[in-house]
Amino acid sequence: MVFDPFAEFRLDDHVVIITGGAQNIGAAVARTLAAAGASVMIADLNGDKAKETAAAIAGETGRPVLGIKCDVTSEADIKACVDTTAKAFGGVSTLINNVGWGAVNPDPFAVTEEQMIAAYKLNTISAYRMSAACLPWLLKAKNATITNSGSFSSAVPAYDILAYGTAKAALNQLMVSLAHALAKKVRVNSILIGTVITEGYASAGIDAKTQEKMMNPDTLTGRPGRPQDCANAMLWLCSPAASWVSGQTINVHGGGGVVRLFGH
Length: 264
Hints:
Elements lengths: L14 E5 L4 H12 L3 E6 L2 H15 L3 E5 L5 H15 L4 E4 L15 H26 L6 E7 L10 H20 L5 E7 L5 H4 L5 H8 L11 H12 L9 E5 L12
Parallel strand pairs: 1-2, 1-4, 2-3, 4-5, 5-6, 6-7
């Protein structure tokens, strides 16, 4: 028998829910996990886009992929998403808490209490609620995993996205706590994502100088991230290939900034 080093990266017989999966990083993850053999439910606030993306991925991969409208700040929507997935595919083995968003605010003291709470609800509480809703199914599954799309901004000073960065920092704590609570039952990890160029940046009002800097970052790899870079890391963490990995934050950010003692 020929040794296949990629066999443990397969996700045959796995059922995935990915939040915020209709486009950008989420769509790349959905496509990659489906291509690896999984059945996938794309949950997104934009239900029509979720279904459109699902149909495209199903056509490309030949795997069952569905889309559903889901507001991850709504417990009713979360329950409907999990119930629909389990009914369609027979369970849930793999949860990707990918949804997240944060506004830029150069003055951290201008951030309102309402903005801080909203960021926490979207970026942290939604992951907790979705994890809890999926748990009865995860506990029955083989190679059960929860993997979060975190942010590198949660681990460095990021005062210009204060609400988002602090909410994502809370997500890091949530991840490691759930990993310990679910030890030997469900593996829980996060990837901390750096600057990934997506369509969202073009419409975010970022000035041309900043966009140019983002396209040419002073990182160890010297390029911005692609959605596929994140999808590749997610595939590893979700698959049996990472069966010895839990409670970890994995940096996926081009290696971070180059450190020079004397410059050049």
